[in-house]
Amino acid sequence: MKFSTEELIEGIQSGNKRLIAKAITLVESKKAEHRQQAEELLKKIMPLTGNSIRVGVTGVPGAGKSTFIENFGRLAISDGKKVAVLAIDPSSAINKGSILGDKTRMEELAREENAFIRPSPSSGFLGGVANTTFETMMICEAAGYDYILIETVGVGQSEVLVADITDVFLFLKIIGGGDELQGIKRGIMEMVDVIFINKVEEDNLNKAKNTRLELKRALDFIPPKEKNWKVPVLLGSALHSEGLEEVYTTIDQFISLKKKTGSFEAVRTRQAEKRFDYWVQEYILSVMKKSNSVEEAYIQHKKNASAMISNPSTEAKLFVERFLSKDQD
Ligand SMILES: Nc1nc2c(ncn2[C@@H]2O[C@H](COP(=O)(O)OP(=O)(O)O)[C@@H](O)[C@H]2O)c(=O)[nH]1
Ligand SMILES: [Mg+2]
Prior knowledge:
GO terms for molecular function: GTP binding; GTPase activity; kinase activity. InterPro entries: GTPase_ArgK, P-loop_NTPase. It comes from Chryseobacterium defluvii. By secondary structure, this protein is of the alpha/beta class. The chain has three domains: 1-48, Up-down Bundle (Single alpha-helices involved in coiled-coils or other helix-helix interfaces); 49-261, 3-Layer(aba) Sandwich (Rossmann fold), CATH 3.40.50; 272-328, no CATH class. Helix content is 53%, strand content 15%. It has 15 helices and eight strands. The chain has helices at 5-13, 17-28, 32-45, 65-78, 92-95, 102-105, 107-110, 133-142, 156-163, 182-185, 205-219, 244-261, 263-289, 292-306, 312-328, and strands spanning 53-58, 83-89, 115-125, 128-131, 147-151, 168-174, 194-198, 233-235. Strands 4-3-2-5-1-6-7-8 form an eight-stranded mixed beta sheet, with helices on both faces. The longest helix has 27 residues, at 263-289. The two termini are 35 Å apart. Guanosine-5'-diphosphate binds at residues 59, 61-67, 105, 198-199, 237-239.
């Protein structure tokens, strides 16, 4: 990394997008020397973080998440806010590239001075998924972004991951396909704070209203995530920027309520604890990965588990014991 930590921090604080991007690349790096500088950087910017509204956006592929984020972002910018967009990129682990059309789809938002768009890789790592979206978010907060919008890929794991680092979880729903129950099956309904039925245009307004009724009925059976908050089901069109202002004010109301009841801070504390546990696992795995023989043993024990030679927990225990005994000699 040809930039010093001080240069990067200065760049972040002055809102230099090129240096913000460099800092993010540093934090995403797995290289030991980068990790050290990354930790140093993150430690120093910590006091500058915490001041954004963190919004997770989920929904099946094609629901309109990217379109929503682009136009919602522009709306926030027109209200004088700075907006950062992070999208968990499922492809980067496999082909090291980005399949997100988002970069191009969010063309108009990308052109805004007060917007910053960045795909967030989730690379496979000894069976784990090392994800630095949270750390990237810290950098964006230090750079003064007021809204951090995170798009999930609509896959279970990324949804949980995003729900665990955001203040508001927004579910984009489309009408029809008989999948009104889909979100319930997937456990989404337990995680959401706001639902937005998207692609509602004149010809399907009645259908949308039925969908809303069904969703509301379903929500009645789900224990409230946030006291005194009944999950609103809003209608609109992300493409035509209809109903987005209502989402904007609803999010504001939700954040105000959370701050009033103290749950805003309480949830963030819990989230930080989860991040701690997450990184403990990551670091243990990365220490293990340093040795080739350990990696071979890992693969072997995993194979035994998958072939049902013995049960997975036994194999995991054997593997860890083997690692620890190796470490001592
Ligand atoms: N008619 C209509 N199309 C929309 C709307 N929102 C998104 N789309 C379209 O739906 C497709 C998928 O949108 P995209 O934002 O990429 O969905 P994502 O996969 O959830 O990110 C694109 O062709 C969009 O133009 C909407 O409100 N109305
Ligand atoms: Mg998308």
